[in-house]
Specification:
There is one protein chain. The protein has 14 helices and 16 strands. It is of the alpha/beta class. It has 2 domains: about 220 residues, Acetylglutamate kinase-like (Carbamate kinase, 3-Layer(aba) Sandwich); about 150 residues, VC0802-like. It has an 8-stranded mixed sheet, with helices on both faces. The chain has a 6-stranded antiparallel sheet with strand order 12-13-11-14-16-15, with helices on both faces. Helix 1 links the parallel strand 1 and strand 2. The longest helix has 21 residues. The radius of gyration is 23 Å and the shape is globular. Bound molecules: adenosine-5'-diphosphate (ADP), aspartic acid (ASP) and magnesium ion. Adenosine-5'-diphosphate (ADP) binds next to loops. This is Aspartokinase.
Length: about 450
């Protein structure tokens, strides 16, 4: 196959029948789109997560009813609902069974339950395409999306995914548009896993890599990647072209439009990624590529709320070797991933994205903290936001910190990290200050351009 495009449609893009129909228009207008990766319809994964949090069956049922309502609303708009109805009923009844049986859900059950959203939307979406005259198949991503058994944040096994795709998926693409699920996978023994919240973007890129796609398209509810979250300021502008490095930094530091790991497979295979709006497909979008013409010092501002700052202090650290190793060894044994780090003579401060896209949702930090407390003073501050200025040559450009400090004159900047990366400069402020800081900073850094 000469040119193959993998197209991913996010939650709002497959929220209801009209939204799915708009996505079908996009697919039918581009014959190179052979693999379609869908998210759960908007709101469904949140309801599934709620189910896993309730021990009470009646409360679980209330969430289930919300999911059923969203699903049946699409089903009933189809021309031939009876063609999808048996499969939808099989999936819904499997979900009901889990709701009734489960006592308190473990990791494996949580992922199994969270997989239902994509399983439902993919069956419905394939039928929407068939009713538009396409030869469309629904394919269970778990047959090929092999991960390890880390529930909540399965690690994709790239070589096996490639081998499995070559055998089970590639042969189907010649004569069909294949619709599959984002976000979900399975481990070696077939247990359902997930790639973490927002993981459908990552799935699309992994499929793109395995199938040697020429382009991965991410269709969402914004017309591309903006200079900051357009919900934070109306001055945010769409970026036409951005490098892998910069977009990866944006995703890592909170630009929700892409899952943080999305660009890793794309960079490995140099696959171009396009981000556009399924509502306004003709409005253009953002191209993410290895080489871009323009490398401005300031590209974007990202924001990640609800960060935790941990300060570890010990007089024993003074001139001592091995203290940091000990601290990081404990964090790594507890699978806690650290973001920002600053050190002083006898203390080290670090931030964690607890519960966020860059951490496993089922990892608790408490056991690690109590180990640290056995040999140092530990303080924990919450309610902080990480603001990241993303750009190029930030570590070696003049005036960067001046621009920043002018904006933050009246703000308590709790921590700052600058110098390690040429692509970002990060700092922490109180959650309540963060939206104002981003708005003001955006005004100062981008309004002149
Ligand atoms: P999908 O369901 O399609 O995956 P998401 O809600 O995960 O969509 O991501 C799209 C959202 O990302 C947008 O509605 C926007 O509010 C948010 N977002 C955050 N930062 C940015 C940014 N820099 N550019 C564009 N969108 C952003
Ligand atoms: N449905 C999943 C979520 O809401 C994955 C995704 O939409 O990317 O997190
Ligand atoms: Mg998303």
């Amino acid at each position: 196959m000469s040119k193959l495009i993998v197209a991913k449609f996010g939650g709002t893009s497959v929220a209801d029948f009209e939204a799915m129909s708009r996505c079908a228009d996009i697919i039918l207008a581009e014959p190179a789109i052979r693999l379609v990766v869908v998210s759960a319809s908007s709101g469904v994964t949140n309801l599934l997560v709620d189910i896993t949090r309730h021990a009470d069956v009646a409360e679980r049922y209330t969430c289930y009813q919300g999911i059923e309502r969203i699903t049946l609303a699409v089903l009933n708009r189809l021309d031939n609902p009876q063609q999808a109805a048996p499969e939808i009923e099989t999936i819904l009844s499997a979900l009901r069974e889990l709701i009734e049986n489960g006592a308190v859900y473990s990791g494996t059950h949580k992922d199994e339950i969270q997989s239902f959203g994509e399983r439902l939307s993919s069956v419905l979406f394939a039928q929407v395409l068939r009713e538009r005259g396409a030869s469309a198949l629904c394919f269970d991503a778990r047959r090929v999306m092999r991960t390890d058994s880390r529930f909540g944040k399965g690690e994709p096994q790239v070589n096996q995914i490639s081998e499995l795709c070559a055998v089970h998926l590639q042969p189907l693409l010649a004569d069909n548009i294949v619709v599959t699920q984002g976000f979900i996978g399975a481990d070696e023994i077939g247990q359902t896993t997930t790639l973490g919240r927002g993981g459908s973007d990552y799935s699309a890129a992994l499929f793109g890599e395995a199938l040697s796609a020429s382009v991965v398209q991410i269709w969402t509810d914004v017309v591309g990647i903006f200079t900051t979250d357009p919900r934070l300021t109306e001055q945010a502008r769409c970026i036409k072209e951005i490098s892998f490095d910069e977009a990866a930094e944006m995703a890592t530091f909170g630009a929700k439009v892409l899952h943080p790991a999305t660009l890793i497979p794309a960079m490995r295979r140099n696959i171009g990624v396009f981000v556009g709006s399924s509502r306004e497909p003709k409005a253009g979008g953002t191209w993410i590529a290895k080489d871009v013409k323009d490398r401005p010092p300031y590209r974007a501002i990202a924001l990640r709320k609800s960060q935790t700052l941990i300060t570890v202090k010990s007089p024993a650290m003074l001139h001592a070797a091995g203290f940091l190793t000990r601290v990081f060894d404990i964090l790594s044994r507890h699978q806690i991933s650290v973001d920002l780090v600053t050190t002083s003579e006898i203390s080290v401060a670090l931030t964690l994205d607890e519960g966020g896209m860059t951490s496993a949702f089922n990892v608790s930090v408490e056991p690690a903290l109590s180990e640290l407390r056995s040999f140092c003073e530990v303080s924990v501050e919450q309610g902080l936001s990480l603001v990241a200025v993303i750009g190029n040559h930030l570590h070696s450009s003049k005036g960067i910190t001046g621009d920043l400090f002018n904006t933050l004159e009246r703000i308590n900047m709790r921590l700052i990290c600058h110098g390690a990366s040429k692509h970002n400069l990060c700092f922490l402020v109180q959650d309540a200050d963060a939206p104002g800081v981003v708005k003001q900073l955006h005004q100062n850094l981008f309004s002149a351009a």
